[in-house]
Amino acid sequence: MLNWIARDRVATLLLVTIAVLLAVGVAAPGFLAPSTASMIWSNGLVLMLIALGVFPVILTRNIDVSGGSVLGLSAVTLGLSLNAGIAMPIAIAMTLGAGLAAGAVNGVLVAVLGVPSIVATLGTLGLFRGVMLIATGGEWIEELPETLKALGAKSLGGLSVMGICTGLVIIAVWAFLRSRRGRWVMVVGDNRAAARHLGLPVKRIEFLAFVWGGGMAALAGVTFAAQIGFVPNQAGTGIELRAIAALVLGGISLLGGVGSVAGVVIGVIFFTSIDTALVFLKIPAYWNDLIGGAMLLTVLLIDGRLRIALEARDRAARYHRGDAQAPQPKKLEDAA
Amino acid sequence: MKKLVMRWEVLLLALLVIELIVFGMINPRFLRTSSLLYGTSDFVQVGIVAVPLTLVIIAGGIDVSFASTVGLCAITFGIANFFGLPLAASLAVGFGTGALAGVLNATIIRLTRLQPLVVTLGSLYLFSGAATVLSGVVGANGYEGIGGFPTAFTNLGYAQVFGVPMPLFVFLCFSAVLLVLLHMTRFGRLVFQVGQNEEAARHSGMPVARIQMWTYVLTGLAAALAGLLLSAYFGSARVDLGGATLLPAITAAVLGGASIYGGKGSVLGTIIATFVIGYLQQGLQMSGVPSQISSALSGALLVIVVAFRHGLALLSAFVPARSSQTN
Q: Is A315 within a domain?
């Protein structure tokens, strides 16, 4: 049991989520309905897209904290171009272009110039937010066309167009990570030096991971604008930290190379379910941060202790067998 | 001589001087002693948290939770004051909260062996949530402030010491203490050693856990100091007092020369960087640049300066290799 909990983070988190949902269902009748599921999905879309964007970046042992500002920047690109009368498909293409370009800036800083990713993306977090505010002149963008809002409205079986898109993105990422090139992303994060010696284009992989992060943040910006119907100045602030928290909860290691798409999805759903459940339990919204933070720390604490206990047990078992002929390969922490 | 000129702090100081000259040319009022002195009250809280944060980063950690700790300490102080505790006791409550926050961070990091970024990210939410909920206790719902401080306290925010405004004076004293602590004591050497190579430090019997604990506790205490100063300055304790310090403080530490990988950094650099960032914001505002552009420019500044420094490091690693070949 202990083994299984510690080794399969995704399954544990899934069980915890189900337990939490059931408990809320007992406390607040009417919570356990299909409509709640569709609500949690649509509430979590923006966070999900940002998390899916940061995911490959973290797999390569970098980090991207500029997601919130890229979201804002691309939502503004979308809003301004739509309100200027540009057709929807072109406007969305421009938005994605803005996001990809922002991601490319991060990628150049980290992969080409060698700036530590946390520093580079902290800088661009301020930079992109500023560019966004310059573009809007500090004003909110309102009166977005109905055609855009329709993308965020629920249609087919409680799913919105953006909801379906996000589902497709999840499947695409899952399929990609199973492919030969997808494994490269993991390899770079697990052991950068080894990946280089294997002849992988390490810098290009890192660069593309950041570009992908920018693109996903742009998609999140489209979703945000479609769901809210306007673009406030602070659109997306703080969401990058929530996304990273959700990823960590889903078992994605910030040390790179470890993580699964299922972990991303369940981590995001866990966070969103808690927010949604609080609404159902009629707990004032200002409890959100306290409960979210306490849950995150508790999960981390339990998970961390379990992992340490398990490692100690494995080691004890190895010594017990007197298994000296196969020394455990030590991970090269300093190689990267 | 070359060593002195090429020191990072000297380059930063030159940057600061250039910045002051440029803004002085755009708007001569900027260079008046009074505006230079009193302008600092708007940004020294960034420096107050950035300096101990430098220690955390040097010791191989990172702390992002201080941004909420600032608000949390202000709120606990406000609550203690609300329930009629004497000023000294209320202040003790505020600082105690800060120290506890640091202990909590360090303990969880130690227990889980997780990356400090993850843990302090969790406590960033936890502390701001706790502050919001606590401020509800005394009826100040949501983001309203807790006021009603004794005038002896609120006067502190505007007091002068030797002609220097109180916040600046506190910042300079506090960073002087940390400067001595980091660069001239055994503790300081241990901080560097732990950051350079934690395993080596542990194997040579250094109290790694205790050193790291102290760096987080110092950051918590500094966050309390910043929270209390801001409460005195604004006359009310709010949950979101420290929210705006998160990025500038990390920027100041990194700009000041702290390596995010640990083992490198200097308090002096962080102090100068604080002024570079602070005066950049002020100068831009006084030159009539909207505040949104100034935030973009300070983000750009961080990226450019750090990229420049990495370029410089690459270059200096490259040049000796070539010259040794020709010799």
A: no
Q: Which residue has the higher pLDDT, A52 or A230?
A: A52
Kindly tell me the sign of the dihedral angle through the C-alpha atoms of A85, A87, A92, A93. negative
Instruction: Return all residues near B221 (Cβ < 8 A) that are at least 6 apart.
Output: B52, B95, B98, B99, B102
Phi, psi of A237 (to 5 degrees): -65, 135
- Count of domains forming chain A: 1
Q: Residue B199 burial (CB < 10 Å; 0-12/13-18/19+)?
A: exposed
Interface mutation target, options A122, A252, A302, A310, chain B, most CBs of B under 10 Å: A122
Residues in chain B, total: 327
Terminal alpha carbon distance of chain B: 23
Q: Which two tokens stand for residue A189?
A: 């994060």
Question: d(Cα A61, Cα A336) in Å, to the nearest integer?
Answer: 9
Task: Give the separation between CA B305 and CA B316, rounded to whole angstroms.
Answer: 16
Q: Is residue A198 part of a domain?
A: yes
Least confident among A10-24, A275-289, B107-121: A275-289
Spatial distance between the Cα atoms of A43 and A74, rounded to a whole number of angstroms: 19
Check CB contact under 8 Å for B115 and A255: yes
- Closest of B87, B66, B69, B67 to residue B78, by C-alpha: B87
Position B4 pLDDT exceeds 70: no
Q: Is the pLDDT of residue A293 over 50?
A: yes
**Which two structure tokens, joined as six digits, stand for B118?**
């993850």
* Contact (CB, 8 A) for A63 and A56: no
Q: Quote the DSSP letter at residue A108.
A: I
* A293: nearest CB among B125, B261, B298: B125
Residue that is written with structure tokens 């993991």 in the block: A186
* Bridge partners, B160 (sequence order): B165
Residue of A nearest to B116 (CA): A254
Q: Look at chain A and count its residues.
A: 336
In chain B the domains, ranked by start, together with CATH numbers, are 2-290 (1.10.3470)
For residue range B219-261, what is the model confidence (pLDDT) as tens digits?
Answer: 999 999 999 988 888 878 888 887 778 878 888 888 888 887 8
Cβ partners under 8 Å of residue A226, min gap 6: A148, A149, A150, A151, A152, A160, A162
CA distance A206 to A195: 12
Residue A126 has its nearest CB partner, among B62, B125, B295, at B295
- Give A97 to chain B, closest Cα distance, Å: 20
- CB within 8 Å: A304 and B306: no
pLDDT 10s digits, B147-176: 777 777 777 777 777 878 888 888 999 999
ipTM: 0.74
What is the extent of the structural domain holding A214?
A: 40-282
DSSP run (H or E) holding A24: helix A9-27
Non-local (6+) Cβ contacts of A122 within 8 A are A65, A66, B247, B250, B251, B254, B299, B302
For the CA atoms of A169, A175, A178, A179, the dihedral, rounded to the nearest 10 degrees, stands at: -110
Is A184 among the domain residues?
A: yes
- What residues form DSSP beta bridges with A231? A141
Task: Classify residue A99: in a domain, yes or no.
Answer: yes
Query: What is the least distance, in Å, from the CA of B247 to any CA of chain A?
Result: 7
Spatial separation of the C-alpha atoms in residues B158 and B170, rounded to whole Å: 12
> CATH number of the domain that A278 lies in?
1.10.3470
CB proximity B289 to A under 8 Å: no
**Of the candidates B70, B51, B200, B75, which has an alpha carbon nearest to the alpha carbon of residue B137?**
B75
